[in-house]
Amino acid sequence: MKNYKIKREDIKRLIDVSGECIATDKITVEGSKIGYMYRENPSNEYDTGWRFFAGDENVEYTNNPDNFEVYDLNTICNYDEDIIPYLIKPIGTKLERNGGEFKEVE
Question: Whole domain around residue 47: which residue ranges?
Fold first, then answer.
């Protein structure tokens, strides 16, 4: 059982968009800010395609599926509201936090 930094009852509605995304435990359990995010083709009708990382996960960490969960996109916005303006970006977008802002990367 994971001990999340934000309790379910403390999640606020921050966006009108609904759908799922994937995030690492570094964000939701350890409380790190999102440092890297990308949008890929959705895997199902509920998936937004967004994937969120703290940015310091190593290969061993990312190869372990237990370090990831599927979340409602709004839930991840509660962990880091800085991502909200970028959620309209198209599939194929890759963003990395550079200082306080996200910048597109290759």
Answer: 17-104
